[in-house]
Design goal:
- The protein is of the alpha+beta class.
- It folds into two domains: 5-70 and 99-177 and 268-343, FAD/NAD(P)-binding domain, CATH 3.50.50.60; 179-267 and 351-385, D-Amino Acid Oxidase, Chain A, domain 2 (2-Layer Sandwich).
- Helix content is 36%, strand content 28%.
- The chain has twelve helices and 20 strands.
- The strands form four sheets. The chain has an eight-stranded mixed β-sheet with strand order 6-5-14-15-16-13-17-20. The protein has a six-stranded mixed β-sheet with strand order 8-2-1-12-19-18, covered by helices on one side.
- A hairpin with a 2-residue loop joins strand 18 (276-277) and strand 19 (280-282).
- The chain is globular and about 70 Å long.
Amino acid sequence: MRTQVGIVGAGPAGLLLSHLLHLRGISSVVLEKRSRDYVERRVRAGVLEQGTVDTLVEAGVGARMLREGLPHNGIELRYGGQGHRIAFEKLVPGRSITVYGQQEVVKDLIAARLEAGGDVRFEIEDVALHALDPEPGSGPYLTFGGERLDCDVIAGCDGFHGVSRPSIPEGILSVFEREYPFAWLGILAHVAPSSEELIYTRTERGFALHSMRSPTVSRFYLQVPPDATVEEWPDERIWDELKARLETVPGFTLATGEIFEKGVTPMRAFVAEPMQHGRLYLAGDAAHIVPPTGAKGLNLAVADVRVLTEAIDRYLTTGSAGLLDGYSAACLKRIWRAQHFSWWMTTLLHTFDSDDEYARRLQLSYLDYVTTSEAAATTLAENYVGMPW
């Protein structure tokens, strides 16, 4: 078999890349290890930057998002018994965020690819990458299930644990990473949100986040020890702890309901440089991971794909590899900005066992600065809604 672009992974990065290439008349085959049902149910991020929303709308896959997504023009920082609103409409006029689950984005993209006759294959277990740095006149290829797929370009969009990044020979990549000394316990519950906007709260008990997925489904996160397990957190304990961390301002009462999803997410940061080798190009979590405090993971994947689409199009239509050769450098500037913002939000709002009273006072001082200085609040707002493309 032959296609122009072989894509490993049917997450948001791989599916969006396939769709954007299709809109430019470029063929692709998407190979996914998991089942369609799994990738459509996999709960991940839910905050879409303005640029991500615009990209999906421009690509013709944003209609359901516009109907069902929840636009937000601000967030609340809650600490010290008070809530402080970061007002996007004032600080970054015309830019906002939309709450719409990553699994919903995936459903929309799969539907669009299949409706257009796209080749998306699920439950492909044994994908291997070959000839990533091909001889002149040849190209890379993929093998799976006894078949061979020749390509002009391979896109590795198969996440942190995928096969794409490990296929790059040793000594090529530099890896930068950080493990945080806590994790997030995340839940989904059948209960209407108790707030119209996301609440990021810092308490001496730890961090908590109140988010939402729809008018009847709420999303919550709790800072927990890094080795925490779901079994240690029965429903009653979760609600008690959420109340203790969120009901810290006068007049706020947390509504509770049936919890139907639980999971523990380790907090880590990771960047692999360069994001390419030969004719293999990494996108999304295959190349970088950010702690979820800044809500940047899915949005960075979309940014990568925008750059990669343009570069592949230029290469296949003109033969010029200039944009492809500069792909990694073009993406990394935005990636490191998002890494810094995510680190900043994480250190601003979480409690660290290693902190002494001096460090805690510094943290509270900076929170005071962010919530009283328009310049500091603008820095938070413009990074949160997403830097311009």
